[in-house]
Input
Amino acid sequence: DTSSITLCNPPPTQLVDPSFENFYPLTETWDDWYISHGTPSGGATPRTGNTAVFLWSATTNGILEGEGLFTCFDFDSTKCYDISFWARVNDSTLNASFDLFATSDLSIQQSSNFAGGPIPAVFSDPIGPIPFNNLGTNWSFIVITGYQPSNNFNQFWFYPNHPNSLIAAKIWVDDINIVEVPCCDLELSATSSCDATGGSIDLTVTG
Output
């Protein structure tokens, strides 16, 4: 999509607005976060600052609907990242998840999108689904460690996911951070030798 190429070219190596503060209530839009589907809104009860983001998901008429946001970020396939954020949910017993992805294929949807826009069908690399069971109705701190992209990507995308239920799974998110960390790919190799006096095994760790 040419608009996504223009939007995130070049992508930043740090999140521009990790706490969702550059928010315009009249239009329900941000400067540096973009709508992927639905109509995300600024949460009235942030963890810090003035604004969090509020998203929901449910299945209506057999269609999985909800809200999602993305921003520009330079994911390098040769590097690893820790991704952290604060979140709280309306009900931690729901069979729902908060799904995060790296992609390069999203374009900005207009805020006039109907409220429960379908999830865009684009190529993406899963960073991690966080079950609502791991979150609470109070703010919880979540860290995804050592994520290594399968390819180079220029967008960071997330949304709640509540399939097969009419009940809305709601999540508030604030203070997202992405930091580069060393990749830790350890390999263990062994060599053995035997002679008349006995045997030995040498172990070597590389990475």
